Amino acid sequence: MASSRKSTAVRLKYPGAGVVWRNAFVQRRPIGVFLSCLLFFCSAQVIAETERRLGEVANFVDGDTLILESGEAIRLVGINTPEMARDGRPAEPLALEARDTLVALLADGQVLIEVAEQPLDRHGRTLAHLFRPDGIHVQEVLLRKGLASAVAIAPNDRYLDLFFEAESAAHHAGRGLWALNYYVPKAEDEVSAGYQFVQARLSRIEMGKKWFSFSAGKSLTILVRRSDWVSRFDYSPAALDQASIALRGWFSKKKTRATLVINHPFMLERCGISPLRLCAGD
């Protein structure tokens, strides 16, 4: 049903670049990348992006974090698993299962580490894709089992197409977190702090010089830098006017208002338009 409310959107002067989730060229093995670079004169940086080093695991923190014998903390990039118990809060459903699956996958203690393009998070942990010596991609397994959800924070979206396919398979099969009411997207006025799924209808759009702000009533705001929108989103912000959307990400909460900052279109789903992920009925 069409909304009778007046549009709150200001028309965008600069159309977004037609960028979609990439089938990353750097997914290939180093030899394949090297041969391609000889043909296309790509830089040594592209080769470096796919290099993998061997590490020895000392400790498993949770389903998406581990510590190496060297003391280096590794955060599995591109996914998020349920939170373990901490600071007096109980563990989220399937947190132990996700951690135990990671332990089982790397039971021999050896792991191949492929560092992400942006190599560190704000906690100083190394962001990386992990592989077993036999080539199995650890993140992909967790996604296919429904013990993790895919996330995209640019520029670290090297395997996003693979992760989307793996998550979709688990979602459609009702495996893991996709079978639990706990992980059904929350309403816009039920958002708490932390990582979660949310479904909302936007009511206001503000397009500033540096930031685009999308509001759902008085309880939720989504922020996207103008530069991120222009370089990565393939539609105008005005297309979200009065739109029903679904979100995933790490929300902050101040009093009654929750805020989500994103820089990648994967984290914002347009219900009925985007590839099916979180919208009700998908």
Question: How many domains is the backbone divided into?
Answer: 2
The CATH architecture of the largest domain can be given as: Beta Barrel
Oligomer: single chain
Task: Assign an overall shape.
Answer: globular
Rounded mean pLDDT score: 87
Helix tally equals: 6
Helical fraction? 10-25%
Query: How big is the Rg?
Result: 20 Å
Strand elements, count: 15
Structural class: alpha+beta
Name of the CATH class of the largest domain? Mainly Beta
Estimated share of beta-strand residues: 25-35%
Order of helices and strands: HHEEEEHEEHEHEEEEEHEEE
CATH fold title of the largest domain: OB fold (Dihydrolipoamide Acetyltransferase, E2P)
The major beta sheet can be summarized as: 8 strands, mixed
What are the defining features of this structure?
282 residues, alpha+beta, OB fold (Dihydrolipoamide Acetyltransferase, E2P), 2 domains, eight-stranded mixed β-sheet, five-stranded mixed β-barrel, 15 strands, 20% helix, globular, disordered N terminus
Description:
The model is unreliable at 1-5 and 10-49 (pLDDT under 50). Helix 4 (138-144) runs parallel beside helix 5. The relative contact order is 0.14. The chain is globular and about 50 Å long. The protein has 6 helices and 15 strands. The chain has helices spanning 30-40, 44-49, 95-105, 138-144, 160-173, 226-232; strands spanning 53-62, 65-68, 73-76, 79-80, 110-120, 126-131, 149-150, 186-187, 194-201, 204-207, 211-216, 220-225, 244-254, 257-261, 268-270. Helices cover 20% and strands 30% of the residues. A hairpin with a 4-residue loop joins strand 2 (65-68) and strand 3. The protein has 2 domains: 52-178, OB fold (Dihydrolipoamide Acetyltransferase, E2P) (Beta Barrel); 184-270, Nucleic acid-binding proteins (OB fold (Dihydrolipoamide Acetyltransferase, E2P), Beta Barrel). The strands form 3 sheets. Strands 8, 9, 10, 11, 12, 13, 14 and 15 form an 8-stranded mixed β-sheet that branches. Strands 1-2-3-6-5 form a 5-stranded mixed beta barrel. It has a two-stranded antiparallel ribbon with strand order 4-7. By secondary structure, it is α+β, with helices and mostly antiparallel strands. It starts with 29 loop residues before the first helix and ends in a 12-residue tail after the last strand.
